[in-house]
Amino acid sequence: MNIQEQISFLTRGCVDIVNIEGLQKKLESGKKLVVKLGCDPTSADLHLGHSVVLSLLRRFQDLGHSAVLVIGDFTAAIGDPSGRDSTRPILPREKILENAKTYTEQAFKILIPEQTQIRFNSQWLEPFISGKDLLHTLSKVTVAQVLEREDFKKRMQEGNPISMLEILYSLFQGQDSVALKADVELGGTDQIFNLLIGRQLQKQNGQEPQIAITVPLLVGIDGVKKMSKSYGNYVGLNDQPNDMFGKLMSISDEMMMNYYELLTSENLDEIKQMHPMEAKKKLASLLTQRFHGTEAAEAAKANFEKVFSKKENPDEMPLLRPSEGTLLSAVLFEAKAAASKNKARALIEQGAVRLNGRKLTQDAPLSFENGDVLQVGKRAFFKLSR
Predict the structure, then answer these.
(1) Buried b or exposed e, range 81-111, using 16+ CB within 10 angstroms
(2) Do residues 19 and 139 both lie within one domain?
(3) In which domain, by residue range, is 104 found?
């Protein structure tokens, strides 16, 4: 590719590109760029929302540049306030390290391992806060700058508190860029403030400010909020093939086109000519194949068509052995078909629970025969046994 083709390739689908002229100069220099992406291990799994920016990082790798995936083992203890309407709970270090173990494996479903550095930001942030560097940095960033953040302004107007830790978060993320001498930093659109702080801190430390590039936030399968495990509207990279396929088939026709744009390289004009159901099956097949392979994607599609198009039960179902007299809500909770017994009761009231196709609308002791099928929602099936 020539330089203009490289820029088009690297910025396709992006929202903010801070200093595109600088990006062009860096590419023209032939230098192998250090491209940084931070990821706080606040949950055990990555999801398709993460894959949007990971795919952009992969594009830089495809052009021979060095990717640095920063595992925020230090910053995860604070929690990124970007786009949040309340303070995140502080995670214990043991949980953060447990979550971090799965991140590399999942990220390598998209990134090239040999061209990826994995760095933990506690390595430089712990010394940073224990010396005079933090005080020096604090003297260079004003309160007015911090309070210009849209999410902070909104929370203040709504009377939602902002902790001092959250205010410091952007400085810590910016210090990551200083420590790594990043040429480029990537993030979602909700990260733009943090990326700009990184540019400011690099300049104050005598470094050339990084290029900041953001990508759109992927809306979750609920069609309302950004995809997040905490909102329960996510498709995890480690979801089983049938679950991944089924979740993707649940999105609206309008959301489907957004997913095509952000998650695939398909020709959108051609997709728009397809019947919506067939287009959605193609999307679900493409993404399931990307993370699980062709055979698993084909099996997931066949399972979906059998269960939902032909109204049949799947061939394989988890086995449940409820004790005699167990309330239905307790059965759902123990089967992990509901996050809590209260949520299980809500599913029952909504008519989302069936026994052999018959709706169960009362949270009563579950009465069943061996081989009966308990269905929760559209995708979860269980075979019952004593």
Answers:
(1) bbbbeebbeebeeeebbebbebbeebbeebb
(2) yes
(3) 3-218
pLDDT tens digit string along 47-56?
Answer: 999 999 999 9
Residues 343 and 347: their CA atoms lie apart, in Å, by 6
- Indicate if 45 and 172 belong to the same structural domain: yes
User: Which strand (E) or helix (H) includes residue 359?
Assistant: strand 358-359
Measured between alpha carbons, how far is 8 from 54 in angstroms, rounded to an integer? 17
Task: Report the CATH number that the domain containing residue 324 is assigned in CATH.
Answer: 3.10.290.10
Query: Which H helix or E strand runs over 130?
Result: helix 122-130
pLDDT band at residue 296 under the 50/70/90 scheme:
very high
User: Both 285 and 161 in a single domain?
Assistant: no
Nearest-angstrom CA–CA distance, 162 and 144: 14
Evaluate whether residue 15 is within a structural domain: yes
Domain boundary among 282, 309, 336: 309
Q: Cα-flanking dihedrals φ and ψ of residue 63, to 5°?
A: -95, 10
Alpha-carbon span 275 to 40, nearest angstrom: 39
Separation of alpha carbons 118 and 100, rounded Å = 11
232 in a structural domain? no
Burial 281-316 (b: 16+ CB within 10 A, else e): bbbbbbbbbbbbeeebbebbbebbeebeeeeeeeee
DSSP, collapsed to helix, strand or coil, labels residue 351 as coil
Long-range Cβ contacts of 341-349 (<8 Å, 24+ apart):
347/376, 347/377
pLDDT of residue 39: 86
